[in-house]
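Anyone have tokens for YqiA/YcfP family alpha/beta fold hydrolase? Sequence:
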Amino acid sequence: MNILYLHGLESKLSDEKRVILEKYGNVIAPELDYKSNPDAIQNLYDKFKNQNINAIIGSSMGGFAAYHLANSLGIYALLYNPALPYRNSVVQNIPSDLPKKRSPLMRIVLGGQDDVIKAKDNLVFLSQNFSELKECTIQIINELAHQIPVAIFEKQTEDFFEELCY
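Reply: yep, here.
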């Protein structure tokens, strides 16, 4: 299995989280500069559209990009505190000509204590764009803030891959 991991703004995939993901397959984790590249989604689509990517995992700004890529490539997605309702401080263009294949399964993990990307704002966004989703699981973890601790990452990732096996 090939897993595409998209990190958040000014972040990267930690070694601990990479080890967790490698239990499930080959991990591809490009370094992205969202601030200087407003066309990151188009660039990622162009780079990976013909590659055998089975699942995409994204966090924060990476979750925003992963949401749109999963729904254009038609692949499974796990999103941690995705920046779906926010695009004011960092411009990211959503290409209008991306295919609409829809992710067959999307798991979204939201932090109840996240003061960077509020869970309720994501829920409003998702309710307004529900037609873009085939099957979606939303997990709200009340004690979770914006940063994803390794233990929560491990548990949610395990649950995600278990869902794919059924």
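The helical segments are 15-22, 40-48, 61-73, 119-128, 150-165.
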